[in-house]
Amino acid sequence: MTNLKVHGTAPQDLEGDLASLRGDCARMVEHWTAPDRITALPVPASHIHGVTVPPASARLLDAMSDYGD
To answer: How far apart are CA 6 and CA 25, in angstroms?
Structure first.
């Protein structure tokens, strides 16, 4: 048997407009947390490495069209 009870809040209008989306986001904001401040630490140059792509993969990617052309 299917439980049709709904728990929590869900968007009321799935085909809604921007105002509806903004309202949904405003209701969710209390559930989102972010750190007060993020401090980026410098990375030594010795930790930065290049990207190596095998020739077969490079040919495969080169043969792919961009954006479905």
So the answer is: 19
Query: Is the pTM above the cut of 0.70?
Result: no
Tokens, residue 31: 């559930």
Three-state SS letters, 3-69:
CCCCCCCCCCCCCCCHHHHHHHHHHHHHHCCCCCCCCCCCCCHHHCCCCCCCHHHHHHHHHCCHHHC
Residue 11 has pLDDT above 70, yes or no: no
Tokens encoding 45: 């140059």
Cβ atoms < 10 Å from Cβ of 67: 4
